[in-house]
Amino acid sequence: MKDLTSALLRLLVCTLFKQCFHCLGLQMGQGLWRVARNQQLQHQGYAGQSYLSREHGRRIAANNVSNTNHRKNAQGGIDIYHLLKTRKSKEQEGFINLEMLPPELSFTILSYLNATDLCLASCVWQDLANDELLWQGLCKSTWGHCSIYNKNPPLGFSFRKLYMQLDEGSLTFNANPEEGVNYFMSKGILDDSPKEIAKFIFCTRTLNWKKLRIYLDERRDVLDDLVTLHNFRNQFLPNALREFFKHIHAPEERGEYLETLITKFSHRFCACNPDLMRDLGLSPDAVYVLCYSLILLSIDLTSPHVKNKMSKREFIRNTRRAAQNISEDFVGHLYDNIYLIGHVAA
């Protein structure tokens, strides 16, 4: 409600500014009209002041006839009269009325608005801006998965009301994750299932990542289902690790939770790339070692506190000590990726 009030105040201020600029524009238009009139008087073909004084009466009589021709053939090809006339007609037209357009075009225009602007638009075009398809699109573009999407809507269901509930639940989650999930369940938005909660988290980008990390650390069953939603097929190992840490943020310090994340990632990566693992002779344990090596290398190359950066030869030597079956070329490509692209868990 506070955001809507602020938006309405912004709209009122913009309207007042528009009226001020409108008055200023009229004054500028009158000034341009005087310039145009002076130009047409200066280019009438009269040579001297004495001639003007003798022919003053005839010049005024012929002025009305020459005005039209001069407006059509102003110097430099600029028809100031035409521009001012067009501007005035556009001012009289005002805003385009969306109700006069085809419905498909009106809905396409309104689909580019966010929730706040759509609420403001409903003050003018109530039937159009309150259409369920528009609010359904807003819900699914922000929260890609909810259990309620796959159910028969209850009596009195509204996607506009659902949007408000989803927004309220997200704010609650960012303050207290457990209360946020309970709110979604109480409203029938989410089912009490680790898989459904994992899908909701995977398809939502409005959740605070620090609160999400705390929640996943406590709900390992949700974490397991969240890991299985990732598909790392045919992805290079550092790139797959970056995608993984975009959805499941790594902790700031090493510990049991980081080890759990890397272990789950290693098994999922191997499950998605069985042919590659067989060709390279890699196992989940070997991928685990490589992931730790990539994280340490990322810190070494990107940290401003490390003056003596690890060389490519040192990285290959240290990595092959821990995983002897890995080829030097593959480890070298890993180093190049971190050197060129950056941290895997930034």
CATH topology of the largest domain: Arf Nucleotide-binding Site Opener, domain 2
Largest sheet: none
Low-confidence stretches: 15-37, 45-78
What is the helix content? 55-70%
What's the alpha carbon Rg, rounded to whole Å?
34 Å
Structural class: mainly alpha
Query: CATH class of the largest domain, anyone?
Result: Mainly Alpha
What is the domain total for the residues?
4
What is the β-strand count?
0
The number of helical elements comes to 19
Order of helices and strands: HHHHHHHHHHHHHHHHHHH
CATH architecture of the largest domain: Orthogonal Bundle
Shape: elongated
* N→C terminal distance: 36 Å
**Assigned CATH superfamily of the largest domain:** Arf Nucleotide-binding Site Opener,domain 2
Residues in β-strands, percent: under 5%
Q: What is the residue-mean pLDDT, rounded to a whole number?
A: 79
Protein name: F-box protein 8
Signal peptide: 1-23
Domain F-box: 95-138
Organism: Phrynosoma platyrhinos (Desert horned lizard)
Structure explained in plain terms:
Residues 95-138 form the F-box domain. This protein is elongated. Helix content is 70%, strand content 0%. The protein has 19 helices and no strands. With 346 residues, the chain is mostly helical. The chain has helices spanning 2-42, 49-54, 56-72, 80-93, 103-110, 115-121, 126-129, 132-142, 159-175, 177-186, 194-202, 209-218, 220-228, 237-247, 256-272, 274-280, 284-302, 312-322, 328-341. It folds into four domains: 2-42 and 63-94; 99-130, no CATH class; 140-221, Annexin V, domain 1 (Orthogonal Bundle); 230-341, Arf Nucleotide-binding Site Opener, domain 2 (Orthogonal Bundle).
